[in-house]
Amino acid sequence: MTPRVLVAAHNHPALHPGGTEIFAHDLFRAYQRAGCEALFLGATNHIHREARPGTSFQSIGSKGDEILLWSGHFDRFFMSQVDLYGIVPDIVELLRDFRPDVVHLHHLLLLGAEFPHIVRRTLPECRIVMTLHDYYPICHHDGLMVRTANKELCYGASPDRCHSCFKDIALDKFVLRERHLKSLMSTIDGYVSPSEFLKQRYVDWGISEDLISVIPNGQPPRNPVRRPPSVQRTTPIFGYFGNLNPWKGTTVLLEAAKQLISKGFDFELRVHGAAPFQSESFVSDIDRLFAETSPNVQRRGAYRREDIADLMSTVDCAIMPSIWWENAPLVIQEAQGQNCPVITSNIGGMAEMVEDGVNGLTVPPNDPTALAAAMRQMAEDADLRQILALGARHPDTIDTTAARYLALIERLRPVHVEAA
Question: What is the annotated signal peptide range for this record (predicted)?
């Protein structure tokens, strides 16, 4: 018997097309194709939608199987709902009306760390699974596990280390934050990590290794549209795809391009993506770097997800220069699905997805000189590009991923607490 599934995420890809939201929504549709009755719940706030007095919910989409939970009162430090009195009754009513057999949670942001506890007390027999997409419960620094002072990678969280990053927050509050989150997350029956690296971070944090399964993210099936590797260009073309922000390595990429230009190297870099909600200083920095690297570097702006395969078919190599512990970037999966070699940082889940010299090149993070050298190597060695294209590792389809999730869910047994 296929279960009734409530898929819950911290936004909706129509409002905020981040990797987590896109994957959660793709999986939601895959559950439906597998025969499940599924409902998608995306939490949002004033950044994307205004509140509608009288209800916590808003409609989105045209099929009636997707709704938004407006979450305007949220404590980002404790990842907690502030307006529990207003939101909890509406969530409980939704749960009792839909009566899911499974709640598949994709984030605690906006939904609140209390969400799995509300599910457990409302529907004691419901199975709760959570996909871990980043490090938000572990790290208050936007879930990056990067130190605030100098962008140094953080190898382990503790109240002392966290306090040293946020000196205006008392040390004991970090102790309370950890206990608060672990207590509320204890009602979750099973976790999924898309990478071994992310799993180990949560094991180190204190979640039992037996509770975390590794299931790689899947992609909607697409036929590769890339040209055959034998077709050569006079001028190599590189592509960047994704939001522009400091942690994605945007300035690192532009500084690398600047170095190549200063050495007289002829190339083209197409930067696809926008810089929403970024600081004025960051926007000013990249505006300057784009001006200094034009016309070799083309700023092409935001793109639609459905266009990414065609856009990638026009480049010789995709670049993913993130300087934080990325978990399982969809961009790398999209590129590999198009037999497109990738240059990426040799850390986190990126290092699991790209093996140096096999399906791409890896470089140290936050190192423009190393990135520039890899770009030049990729551009000047046609045989290498062909080898890396032939070595591409195509991601699983999202339907295969959904089947693996459903097999895991079948094995889960709910943690029982006394129903309210």
Answer: none
